[in-house]
Amino acid sequence: MSRVPILGIAVALAVTGALLAQNTGTVPVAQTDSQTQVAQQPQEQYVYRVKQAVKDSERLLGLGSDVLEERDGDDLFVLGDRAEGERIRAAGFATTVESVMPAPKWAPPKAQRDAGPVTRADADETFYGGYRTVRAQHAHLDKVATDFPALSSLVTYGQSWRKSTGKGGYDLRAICLTKKNAGDCEQKPNSAKPRFFLMAQIHAREITTGDMAWRWIDHLTANYGKDAEVTKLMDSTEMWVVPITNPDGVEIVQQGGNSPKLHRKNGNDSNGASCGWGGQTGVDLNRNSNTHYGGSGTSTDPCSEIYRGPGASSEVETKALEGLLGKIFPDTRGDGDNTAASADTKGLMITLHSYTNGIIFPWSHKSGAKTGNDAKIRAMAKDMAGITGYTYGTAPEVVGYAASGGTDDWVYDKLGVPGYTFEIGARSGACSGFLPQYSCQDSTHWPKIKPALMYAAGKAAAPYK
Ligand SMILES: [Zn+2]
């Protein structure tokens, strides 16, 4: 498809949006309508290598560029359309094309608002060669709860932005897996068993991560009573899983996107509804947490990929997640960046992202900052890096720039629980990037992630001992 008619659609949308805004006094909504999403076909995306950008990363982030969560030495990488490379070059950065991601091809599933209640059959709904839709993930949770009632408890902990505003959307859902005794999986902080918390797809376009969560749920339930290691873990530990942290964003991804870019942020377009060609609405939920909010690696521009939102925990998805975590983990850490959490702390959290083959831990809000539990947190990261073959460190150490307001920093800051970010997948070569062939989940990603998650879950009983 040539670019001219697409631009025509974008202009038409902008005009429609402006008219709507004038007529109703509200923000334009035209760009999120499911019909126009279908009309806007995704385009090929370029990954640009920006040479020696680590030393000037704040300026690069300030351009509003989609800086990827990866680095190579002092080089950083930016995702964008054909024009983006010129824009970065014009700002004085030496830039080359690293790779071209082909436009994704799949038939978009129906939008949630048109599709009625989730049924068991929806567990088979996939896109892009096998990746599960939000409906499929939710049907899967229901199916597991039905098939394994002695091992699972379902939790609805909130609503997505679209659902909370009457625009379709989804419930926010978790599952707690364990060999259930009375009192297990209750939303109370002082649980009898330690808790391991896994979450995926807070960044919607990182589609490998939701698939890892799906497999983790199946691994724990299907192998209980068969695999000694799984059985021991399920007898002793509560395994919490949020497979889709940002369902509105994932719906945009599976629909082909509300813009030509792969969608990273949530579905909230009320802070600036029209980003024009190449921009994306929404809030970056991994910059919105109430920890060092507004610091490095965030933006006040609603069209930036690292838009932090209008305030700390402004987004319903953030608030609900923080609420859930606060209910299931006691606070074991005092105030101040250097204060250590209690050595008696139980629990461990992993948030799955893509990509750079890295394992990241706090503090990520500032270069050079170390937590009061750095030695233990770093040692566990080193072990998991050994299992996966990934690199490890804080965000400034691994990806070359600080990122404040992230979930991993938050869970450590507010509760004392060690929080890790896994960045799954390589930058180049087979099974790299945001959209690896689905077969990569079997061949490459799950074989690395499964043993790392087993290791992490085993550490939840006493992570600092
Ligand atoms: Zn991410």
Features of this protein?
465 residues, alpha/beta, Aminopeptidase, eight-stranded mixed sheet, four-stranded antiparallel sheet, 34% helix, globular, disordered N terminus, binds zinc ion
Tell me what the structure shows.
This protein is α/β, with parallel strands linked by helices and 465 residues long. The protein has a domain at 112-252 and 307-459: 3-Layer(aba) Sandwich (Aminopeptidase), CATH 3.40.630.10. The chain has 15 helices and 14 strands. It has helices at residues 3-24, 34-39, 57-62, 84-90, 112-115, 134-147, 161-164, 207-222, 228-236, 247-254, 316-328, 374-388, 395-398, 407-415, 439-459, and strands spanning 45-50, 66-72, 75-80, 95-101, 126-127, 131-132, 152-159, 171-177, 195-200, 238-242, 348-353, 358-360, 391-393, 419-423. It has an 8-stranded mixed β-sheet with strand order 7-8-10-9-11-14-12-13, sandwiched between helices. The protein has a 4-stranded antiparallel β-sheet with strand order 2-3-1-4. Strands 5-6 form a two-stranded antiparallel ribbon. Helix 8 (207-222) packs across helix 15 (439-459) and helix 12 (374-388) runs antiparallel to helix 15. The N and C termini lie far apart (58 Å). The structure holds zinc ion (ZN). Zinc ion (ZN) binds at residues 69, 203, 206, 353.
List the SSEs and their pairings.
Elements (H helix, E strand, L loop, with lengths): L2 H22 L9 H6 L5 E6 L6 H6 L3 E7 L2 E6 L3 H7 L4 E7 L10 H4 L10 E2 L3 E2 L1 H14 L4 E8 L1 H4 L6 E7 L17 E6 L6 H16 L5 H9 L1 E5 L4 H8 L61 H13 L19 E6 L4 E3 L13 H15 L2 E3 L1 H4 L8 H9 L3 E5 L15 H21 L6
Parallel strand pairs: 9-10, 9-11, 11-14, 12-13
Antiparallel strand pairs: 1-3, 1-4, 2-3, 5-6, 7-8, 8-10, 12-14
This protein binds zinc ion.
